[in-house]
Amino acid sequence: MQIVKLPKENLDKFVGSLSKFGEIHAPIKKDENTYLFSKIEDLSKIELNYNRTILPPKKYFLPPTETIFRFSPEKGYEPPKDNLNRKYVLLGVHSCDIHGLKILDLVFSGTYVDNYYFTRRKNTSIIGVSCIPDDMCFCRSMETDFVEDGFDLFLSDMDDSYLVRIATSLGDDMVRASQSLFKEVDKEDIAEYKRKSNEMKNYFKIGLELYNLPEIMDLEYESKIWGEMGEKCLSCGTCSMVCPTCYCYDVFDELNLDGKTGERRRRWDSCLFKDHALVAGGLNFRKERSSRVKNRYFHKQRGFVAQYGRPSCVGCGRCIQSCPAKVDIVEVITKIRSVDYE
Amino acid sequence: MSNYSAKSGADNIYQPSLARIVRILPQIKDHRLFELRFEDPEMRRSFTYNPGQFVELSVIGTGEAPVSISSSPTRPGVLELCVRKIGRVTEALFRLPLNSVVGLRGPYGNGFPVEAMERNNLLIVAGGLGMAPLRSLLWYVLDNRSKFKEIILMFGAKISEEMLFKFELLSLLDRTDMKCLLTVDKDEEGTWPVQVGVVTRLFDFVEIDPEITYAIVCGPPIMYKFVLEKLLERNLPKDRILMSLERRMKCGVGKCGHCSVGYKYTCIDGPIFTYWDAINLPEMI
After folding, report:
1. What's the burial of A198, exposed, middle or buried (CB within 10 Å: 0-12/13-18/19+)?
2. Which residues of B touch A168 (CB under 8 A)?
3. Which of B167, B223, B178, B180 is nearest to B200 (CA)?
4. CATH assignment of B14-108, among 1.10.10.60, 2.40.30.10, 2.40.10.270, 3.30.1360.120
5. Which helix (H) or strand (E) covers residue A162, if one does?
6. pLDDT value at position A65?
7. pLDDT at A339 > cutoff 90
8. Is B255 within 8 Å of A107 (Cβ atoms)?
């Protein structure tokens, strides 16, 4: 992979030059320790040195709510004329979140390809940025602290400059369009990059062990921990909303005032909501909150491994940060793994 | 990411096609058989399915619901859906007059492994509305009668007035190339012509060769436990017991997450699962 160097004093100019590749979105600081991905109109608002955004980048590809059809008795169902083909540049995406998108790609492809998702995916370029883990990050455990593809460019922070990995032809075009802003990587840069890389593991405060976890979860299927979790969890669904890989959605039809025409929409849903597994007639396959919590953990850490060969959790720490009941996934998994816990 | 262009197909997987309700046959209380015909002649020709698959049915302005297919692909042209009036969409469907237009997507799900089932005995066990998806299989195997060995149908309803497809099934009593066992739990007026009692009692009337038999079971959740017991008593292999499951198949294409059982999706990995699948997937039955 080609790697070049971007001195930090050239960053604003480079980012400014990206607007011809699409509308620029990047993290901005909302409050103390609160960041979000937002449309950038003022380059000085961009905050590349952040821990995590409230919502992951999935909001750009699977929006919290979207119209999938307009309907009328005469014409039936017609896809909306929304401009799915608008180009975006998503700057400042962490490695864990790029992995999150790669996991969503698995779900929305397959035999049935969701083109609402993939049209947006195709039209959005991704520029990653390195980060320093905080006390809720456990990406290293989930093997998402490094990313090899799924981005066009990836910026690694070297204090005074960024080392820029160029992963795609489009990424190369972005660099070439502003060639004079970039420099070659020299020996000192390589030494510094290695030094920083070798230090990275020291920053992690928490982690969990994946070895044999699916089997351990099968063995603990009847564990009392699920009952305890059911008591603690509020079923609010926040963890699903902020999760980079939660993709459940609900579909509903909205009638216009004429009572005939309307829209079919979808919106984010959560398996923790009481009606998630409810079928017509009132039978609910996961009526108990404990069964819904258990389902969420099993799907993320056990089921996804069976389906796709890895857990769907990327260790971003958002659910730990956002849970109003202080449910901590690392604590839960550590408890399940512990020999003493019955 | 420009790399993603290759993955995009042209089709919209959520797009319903319009179909007209050409016939409504009332069945038992709150159950009707709807005959649907696609508006698009090309769809009429190309739409084919396996027994055991389902469609997503849209009532324009109300919403979408999964419905199993009750007709057999051996009888193309119209699609028959047996629907119970039980939720928002089905209530709206029951209000539609004949010749109304609805939306259809599908067919979805795996359906029964009909080719693997060939040259075997089939034991079809249904309870209540469970007959709706199994009727597709029943007519499929009867229309391909020579491909299968013995065929036994066991079907139980609470009372005679609640037996779906009653007259159609009673007429099968005359067939000598299959065994049709129909039972009702209660027959207070003493007018039911054949067996009385729960469906599991019908096992007293049949011989099962576990080596060459597939059992196919669909009914209310409570029925599975008792029928499975009977089948295991008769040494039927767990991977030859097929069940059709109900879940909230909202999208039908494995995306929306609502029909998960364990870590499978009923809509794409099912709705037909073996008992062996069920043992390995918690909370399936």
Report:
1. exposed
2. 1-3
3. B223
4. 2.40.30.10
5. strand A161-166
6. 96
7. no
8. yes
Residues shown for chain A: 342
Residue B228 near residue B200, CB atoms below 8 Å = no
**Nearest partner of B236 among B278, B207, B269, judged by Cα:** B207
Strands across the sheet with A65-72, in order?
A76-78, A65-72, A262-268, A249-255
CA distances from B34 to A38, B43, B85 (A): 49, 18, 12
Instruction: Look up residue A206 and give its amino acid.
Output: I
Helix, strand, or coil (residue A252)? strand
Output the average pLDDT for chain A.
94
Please answer yes or no on whether B13 and A114 come within 8 Å at the CB atom: yes
Mean pLDDT of A122-149: 96
Instruction: Give me the residues of A, 91-120, that contact B with CB < 8 A.
Output: 105, 107-115, 118-119
Q: What is the C-alpha to C-alpha distance for residues B270 and B254, in angstroms, rounded to an integer?
A: 10
pLDDT greater at residue A211 or residue B262: A211
pLDDT at A337 over 80: yes
Helix (H, G, I), strand (E, B) or coil at A171: helix
First to last CA, chain A: 49
Pairing of strands B101-108, B54-59: antiparallel
pLDDT of residue A212 exceeding 80, the answer is: yes
Is the pLDDT assigned to residue A109 strictly greater than 70? yes
Which tokens in the block code for residue B272? 């037909």
CA distance B59 to A219: 44
Residue bearing tokens 């999706």: B265
Does B107 sit behind a cis peptide bond, omega within 30 degrees of 0 on the bond before it? yes
CATH of the domain spanning B114-244: 3.40.50.80
Q: What is the CA radius of gyration of chain B?
A: 19
In this structure, the dihedral spanned by the alpha carbons of residues A242, A243, A246 and A248, taken in order and rounded to 10 degrees, is -10
CB-based contact A76 B18, cutoff 8 Å? yes
Angle B184-B190-B196 from CA coordinates, rounded to 5°: 25
Substitution target from A240, A253, A290, A295 for chain B, most B beta carbons within 10 A: A253
pLDDT of residue B7: 40
CA B129 to chain A, closest CA, distance in angstroms equals 13
Q: Least CA distance to B106: which residue of chain A?
A: A112
How far A337 CA lies from chain B's nearest CA (Å)?
20
CB contact under 8 A, B258 and A276: yes
Report whether B82 contacts B135 (CB < 8 A): yes
Tell me the average confidence (pLDDT) per consecutive run of 10 residues in chain B, 285 residues long: 44 93 95 96 93 96 96 93 95 97 96 97 96 97 97 95 94 95 92 91 94 96 92 96 91 93 89 92 73
Measured between CA atoms, how close is B12 to chain A, in angstroms?
Answer: 7
> pLDDT at position B280, please?
85
Q: What angle do CA A252, A253, A259 make, to 5 degrees?
A: 155
Tell me what ipTM this predicted complex has.
Answer: 0.89
Dist. CA A182–CA A187, nearest whole Å: 16
Q: Is pLDDT of A14 > 70?
A: yes
